[in-house]
What does this fold into?
Amino acid sequence: DIQMAQSPSSLSASVGDRVTITCRASQDIKNYVAWFQQKPGKAPKSLIYAAISLQSGVPSQFSASGFGTDFTLTISSLQPEDSATYYCQQYHSYPHTFGQGTKLEIK
Amino acid sequence: QLQLQESGPGLVKPSETLSLTCTVSDDSMSSPTYFWGWIRQPPGEGLQWIGTISYSGTTSYNLSLKSRVTISKDMSKNQFSLKLSSVTAADTGAYYCARRGKGYVWGQGTLVTVS
It folds into this structure.
């Protein structure tokens, strides 16, 4: 199975801060990466697909980059509603594995 | 706007079979563009991919569950289904259906307790 090492596991930041979350794949997965946001008690929400493409309706403060094994999700100016857990997922090879999640807290 | 809705029992006895259905609100199951899948999340834990079915009916499963999992679809009803046999308490959690195309669309999820 392809492992997705996501970091950090948690972080705390202030409104207006720039925040970056990373995922490292255990092998080359091209651009087959998605990013999700999940708030407590809710279903995940799709943010990014194909490593860099913003899902329709997602605010432009979210962006992503990467290809091959290293991927990042960036929130350019943190808002209170961005408090959530964020997951990466690879869909290059079955099983489609997820990172372990990053819990983002707003100070 | 596309919606996916999970349905099925919220309580399943140990050793029995968990059965869930996902109903798709549009006709996108008739398109070869999309894949249809199930993901679960144990309480307080992360996301676990269960498996996927394609337009052609090809299935792929998480090997850790493979001997117990069956995903099927009924395009005439705009539905796809999950069956997980011989369940234990470790199968308790939220179960989500999702469509993968250009990005994902998720159902709201359903909580299943094995007890």
